[in-house]
Amino acid sequence: MRLSVVSRHLPLPEGGSNGRALLAWVEGALTEGHEVDVWSWSPDPPPHDLPSWCTWRPLPREPWLHMKARALVHPRSDVVIDGWAPHAGWVPVADDPISFPAVARFDRPVLTVHYLTRFDAPAVGRRSARDIQDLRAERRDARRAAVVIAHSDRVAATIGVPAASVPLAYPVPDIVLPLVDQPVAVLLADWRWPPNQRALRVVLEAWTSVRERVAGAELILAGRGMEAGEVSEPGVRAIGPVARAIDALGMAAVLPFPCPPSSGPKVKVLEAMAYGVPVLTTDHGAEGIFGTAGREALVVAGEAGFGDALAALLADPERRAAIAAAGRRAAVEHHAPVPAARAKLAAISEGRR
User: Residue 351 phi/psi, 5° resolution?
Assistant: First the structure.
């Protein structure tokens, strides 16, 4: 298969979640002998050279009034001003909804949906003009697409048109982190994102009882949007941004993430599983993670019982080891570049017949 792909994201190994997923599934498709060409229109320049299959070209500037007028009629369609076109005879693929207007005018376009605003905005108590525009764009694009690819059953079932649910690709590392014996919980996140802020509040509210039940328990907070030392509570240490996810996950006996009811797969959960770090999350944190139907690969608890579940897991090294092995296995079998690309390309092929 030959695919011309448009993405707002940069395919970087330590970039955002959508960019890492893009890098993984394209590399998987290339390994399988397919041809893929990607145009990234990220507003941010790449920090280093991109893969040979990706061209970065930001959108040309235009008057603000032009942008405003277009948004009123066709929300989230700025990407059309570039005039991009796929290679002749290649499948046009939008790797995210905001890129779909670029491919929509070509034959049998493909739309990729990572999450839905109808879930994510209420999850954090938000309803803004931006959300209304996103809702309009999501409904419009789903109707216009010949093939819709979702990364969770929940999103696929709710988008309003037939959609295929396939695993989100992740560049599974070759190494497995050694198990950590000490009761250390590490939460790695982008703290600028409201769902992560809500998750942090849940963990901090439960942490006092966790420390009372587990001697020596420590909570480490890492990621962008939080400075080292910013949180000063007993048994809690904020280390701030890290250069690589492994720098934080290497200290973790458990990754606790009480995910609010947002949608789509959470890369922090998948990333920890891929490195062999046990994960404790909510049902919504497990959404879109394939190979976890029996819950052997991760632990799920509600927000009300999250502290009890975290204390029990921190106090049980044997259980953590079993969960770590099963989680790593699920990531390799379903979300690694080749199996994830196979599932995505099979869905595209079937949907375009």
Answer: -70, -25
The domain limits of the chain are 2-171+337-351, 184-335
* Average pLDDT for 322-345: 97
Q: Which helix (H) or strand (E) holds 28?
A: helix 17-31
- Crossing angle (nearest 10°) for helices 317-330 and 267-274: 110
Domains 2-171+337-351 and 184-335 share a fold: yes
The answer to whether domain 2-171+337-351 has CATH 3.30.230.10 is no
Can you spell out the DSSP letters for 256-304? EE---S--S--HHHHHHHHTT--EEE-TTTSTT-TT-TTSSSSEE--ST
**Rounded distance between C-alpha atoms, residue 267 and residue 18, angstroms:** 9
Average pLDDT over residues 158-168: 96
Does 30 have pLDDT greater than 70? yes
Coil/strand/helix, residue 244: coil
If one counts every other C-beta atom within 10 angstroms of the C-beta of residue 217, the result is 21
Bridge-partner residues for 186, per DSSP?
A: 220
A 10 A CB-CB count for 303 gives 17
Q: Give Cα 290 to chain centroid, integer Å.
A: 13
What is the C-alpha separation between 97 and 308, in angstroms, rounded?
39
Q: CA gyration radius for the chain? A: 21
CA dist., res. 166 & res. 201, Å (int):
32
Mean pLDDT within 326-348: 97
How many CB atoms sit inside 10 A of residue 105's CB? 11
CA-nearest of 122, 275, 120 to 188 is 275
**What's 184-335's CATH class?**
alpha beta
Question: Is pLDDT larger for residue 290 or for residue 228?
Answer: 290
The per-residue pLDDT for 73 is 57
